[in-house]
């Protein structure tokens, strides 16, 4: 798995990969996995019924607009009716729209539903990281820490360390934050991410 500076960088890498391969797939929400893993992920799901679900998902996802409640309702309906990877992807998309408009309870609920809909480890990691961020915004640091414990895989070490450090700092645990960020710096993270974590450590009191 490639390691990137942040989730947006991972997302851009996936966009480039699928564009080069001519795959009009729902890549906007799959982060944290390398191009090869992404290709295998979608190849395993491109059978007949899956192609239908993929097409329907893309229509729902591309129409999402937080200023148009009917598009959110359509995405929620799709997610509730598809207990599969595409339902999880719709929940992830929908959670972002809710989080952007500070509807954090709805965002958390969608992410939790998405976790029930997929067994793919990489997608579960995405959902759990996003859920931990939302829980931190909800001022539920203990819940966020438990959620982060569910994220597996070396490729996620630095990103999890980043969120864990922020969460511990919100609890007043500066030492715990320092330890978390130190672990991220010691991992096989990108130079940019290591630099960001170092800056956070440098800004800690004491």
Number of helices: 11
Apparent shape: elongated
Largest sheet: none
Strand content: under 5%
Order of helices and strands: HHHHHHHHHHH
Can you count the beta strands?
0
Measured between the Cα atoms of the first and last residue, the distance is: 36 Å
Give the class from helix and strand content and strand pairing.
mainly alpha
- Mean pLDDT across every amino acid position: 80
Q: Helix fraction?
A: over 70%
Low-confidence stretches: 1-5, 13-39
Q: What radius of gyration results from the CA coordinates?
A: 17 Å
Membrane topology: Single-pass type II membrane protein
InterPro entries: SecYEG/CpoB_TPR, TPR-like_helical_dom_sf, YfgM
Pfam families: TPR_21 (PF09976)
Protein name: Ancillary SecYEG translocon subunit
